[in-house]
Here is the input.
Amino acid sequence: MNEIVKKIILCACLSSFLLPVAADERPRLVVGIVISHFHPEWLEWYGAELSAGGFRRATGGQAWTMDYNYFYSQTGVDHASIYTGMLPADHGIISHAWHDRLRKGRQPAVASPEYLEVGSRGAGDIKSLSPRFLQAISLGSALKMSDATSKVFSIAMNGEEAVLSGGNSADLAIWYSEETGEWVSSTFYAGQLPAWLSRFNYTIDSDLFVNKGWAPLSREKNGIARFTRRAAPSSFYYDIARARRQYNTYRVLKATPHANTLVGALAGALVDGEQLGKDNVPDLLALNFSCLDYTYRDFAVDSPENKDVVLRLDQDLATLFATLDTRVGKGNYTVFLTFSEARELLPPELERLKVNSEYFAISRAVALMKSYLGLLYGPGDWIIDHDAAQVYLNRDLIAERGLNPREVQDRAADMMIDFEGISKVMTAHALASATSSSGANRLVQNSFYHKRSGDLLFCLQPTWTAELKELEDTHARYSRRSTVPLYLWGAGVPAGGGGRHDMADLLPTLCRILGLPVPYTARGNELF
Here is the structure.
């Protein structure tokens, strides 16, 4: 077969998967907005107080109910799924960290000691991050494969979200330094920050946000929180400067709505500094906001603090969209907005509804399981790690004692299912050898990555929640709200839509809007 015939056949095959989109019909910029720890019902509760240019605009386009289609929704994991169109069972990011059996230690999802931090004082000695554990082609990579001049950037307060939303091909993933209050990146992306970002780090003063404190918008005057001892019962004031002095870290800002304001301000500067959306080659900007980050459990779902977060984020989004209108132009960009690790109702909130609910103490359960396995098989460290509803058995010890790994998994699972609050326990050998088509078994299987997941994966009762050992405990942080809203509007988005779909369907849809071939690793189908 000669080369001309081969090319004709190849073009015919590609055309069956991709309808051509004229360059002047494609969006110049796609802006992905993912909000973590958000209670989607807030949009209805506080809808009357939201501005026309913020959440109302963001949710005024096409709307779908999207199913992540796996059991353990977690920041980072969800970001990887959104931007790759794959499940954790495929892309490999199963949680914030997992036990690496080869290296015999805990492996954070994006930690890469071979790369160094760039952008802050003393950054040259700080081990940094990369997306090297992400086993997939992301939206940013698809853009770069189509045209290497496409620009791909991501921003988040936390490095994990920035790295996994930007993907392997990002020009730069940018996150916030808790040590210095500056924006930083990794040598995986660049040897130094671009000049515009270095200048921005001098102009944005984290201490201004620290010193202003946090009070409701209604009690701010000229951007300064006003504190009075005779405040209304629904009011509050938090002295962030005091917390900053006590803990000696800018991490305290992540537990306030000021974090979202910082992300929004940087996004506007990035659009200008990198000239995003200025030509007909589409660019990507992945933005990640959060609702109180690691302290989201500290406030009731209907608290005035959470309401204030929503109202302030509404303002931040309105400012962002106004900037895009001015810099990129109305009709020249596309926006999607969705949620990661969506806020569940906690036991105290469910108890107000007279719903039986408790906290499950995984650490105590693991201690009991260690004792039980010790009685069965003799003394030893039978459990070496646990994380995100997974338990890792000591396979070296199992082999040393000449035991059958499957038998030990089964005996441990039989013991664990008797704990109050647990509804299901699945073993690694069962998940690897059988396929489930529906229910919780299927969701857990979609979260299971054989090389990284534990020997046991368990599910709590729907109204039970994992207990945190300490405020910053990451072992038990995940959500079982696998379905969340998705809003899509702007250039290239046709009328129609709605219904329930898998989150994996978002990537092929964005590729269709951008006129890109869908990456062969993606699993979803177009929404339209």
In short: The chain is about 35% helix and 20% strand. Residues 142 and 519 are 6 Å apart (CA to CA).
